[in-house]
Design a protein that fits this description.
The mean pLDDT is about 95. β4 and β5 form a beta hairpin. It is elongated and about 45 Å long. It has a 5-stranded antiparallel β-sheet. It has about 130 residues and is of the alpha+beta class. It is about 25% helix and about 35% strand. The N and C termini lie close together (about 5 Å).
Length: about 130
């Protein structure tokens, strides 16, 4: 199941060449991930209030075409893996029908002391439902 969020490229996100700075794609991945969780019925803040945080273990992005100032982009987010305390999300950034970038983040579910823990059942169930 894909979740799509729109973002518009701000001037501050571009470099001197008028192209989006590469690191901003990871911020958009986060926007996609947070909005996907919201669409599943809970917020990231709610998850944190229950003592769970999701630090990034790995992140990658492959850039295919440049995004530029004022482009309206779609960020597709997909849950790839929900296994114990490991979550993997994949992303695709589109401008209309053109793929600009694709990536992935891997997260570990930890408590406030940074100890590995399991995702609370209701959150895990919601994420698992997206796997089909």
């Amino acid at each position: 199941m894909k979740f799509t969020t729109s973002v518009r490229v701000r001037y501050a996100e571009t470099d001197q060449m008028g192209v989006v700075y590469h690191g901003n794609y990871f911020s958009w991945f986060e926007v996609g991930r947070v909005e996907m969780l919201r669409s599943l019925g809970f917020s990231y803040a709610e998850l944190e209030s229950e003592g769970c945080v999701l630090p990034v273990l790995e992140a990658r992005c492959r850039y295919r075409r440049p995004a530029r100032y004022d482009d309206l982009l779609g960020v597709e987010t997909v849950v790839e893996t929900v296994r114990g305390s490991v979550l993997v999300f994949s992303y695709a950034v589109w401008k209309e029908a053109v793929l600009l970038a694709e990536g992935e983040t891997k997260h570990l579910v930890v408590d406030r002391t940074m100890r590995r823990t399991r995702l609370p059942e209701r959150y895990q169930a919601a994420l698992l439902r997206t796997l089909g």
